[in-house]
User: Fold Aspartyl/glutamyl-tRNA(Asn/Gln) amidotransferase subunit C from Gemmobacter megaterium.
Amino acid sequence: MSTIDISTARKVAHLARIRVAEDQLPQLAEQLSGILTFMEQLNEVDVDGIEPMTSVTPMRLKRRVDEVTDGGYPDKVLKNAPDAREGFFAVPKVVE
Assistant:
C-alpha cells in the first residue's frame, strides 16, 4: 500500500498549482493515499480478453467518408480573411 507523506502532498499541490494551507496538508496526504490504494485495487482486476469500451451502451461510432472538401461555404470562410484573392487566402511573401 502506497502512503503519501506531507512533503509529497505539498509537492503535488505545488505541481498542480493549487494553494493548500499547511494545516490541510495531512488531510490531502490521506486523500491522495486513498486514491493510490484504490488504483492498486484496480491493478488486481484481471482484464485479459476484455475489449475496451467507448461507451457504457454498446454502439458503433459514427463514421464519415474521409474526403477533401471545401467545407461547403468557402465564401463565408474567406469573408473573415484579412486578404483573399481568387477564392484563396492571400499571405505576405516571406521567402525571396
Remarks:
- The mean pLDDT is 89.
- The first strand starts at residue 84 and ends at 85.
- Helices lie at 6-15, 25-43, 74-79.
- The radius of gyration is 27 Å.
